[in-house]
Amino acid sequence: MSRIGRLMIEIPDGVKVRQEGRTLRVEGPRGIEEQVLPPRIAISIVDGKIKVSREEDTREARAIHGLTRKLIANSVAGVSRGFTLNLEIVGVGYRAEVRGNGLQLSLGYSHPILYQLPPGVKVKVEKQTALTLEGSNRHVLGEVAAQIRALRPPEPYKGKGIKYSTETIRRKAGKAAGSAGS
Question: CA-to-CA distance for 155 and 171, rounded, in angstroms?
Fold first, then answer.
């Protein structure tokens, strides 16, 4: 049996969970999330806990058991606490500012870039080079962070670009460092 899939999901106070057919609806203070249950997976809600189980013991059911449990747990955590991701902008003259429902980025190109945020994602800019993305859907939040990072990925020679705060950039020596030793 899946070690992840057999864990129970605690439903925190202020969160309502309802099953409507194959759809699980999770409502909380930070919004509403819906999760479609795959075939061969069943859930039961007992005493403020959600139990995810397999209807049959096939290869496909075993493969998606733990995944389904984790997706439901992310929905419950998202509507109760929410998720955050931190990005850092490194480079002289590189900066960001919030413009309405978007993010204006100056990344060394000839023009500023206006990135429109999807609904449910908020951004805070601290000291023009630190971004904090907040949202209740972990998947959408990760997609937005990856799209912002892709606008100017960090390069290995000077380390300039947009990076995750937990990411370390492996630096390379330039061409002058390679020929100086000969």
Answer: 8
Which amino acid appears at position 180 of this protein?
Answer: A
Tokens 């998606």: give the residue. Answer: 64
**Alpha-carbon span 40 to 60, nearest angstrom:** 8
For residue 106, the number of C-alpha atoms closer than 13 Å in the C-beta half-sphere is 10
Instruction: Return the H-helix or E-strand segment holding 90.
Output: strand 83-90
Residue-wise pLDDT for 112-161, tens only, equals 999 999 998 999 998 888 999 999 999 999 999 999 999 999 888 888 88
Residue pair 35/75 in contact (Cβ under 8 Å)? The answer is yes
Query: Which of 49, 62, 61, 55 has the alpha carbon at shortest distance from 7?
Result: 49
Q: With 0-12 CB in 10 A as exposed, 13-18 as middle and 19+ as buried, what is 142?
A: middle
DSSP 26-82: EEETTEEEEEEPPTTEEEEEETTEEEEEESS--HHHHHHHHHHHHHHHHHHHHHHT-
With the C-alpha atoms ordered 57, 58, 61, 66, is the resulting torsion angle positive or negative?
Answer: positive
pTM for this prediction: 0.83
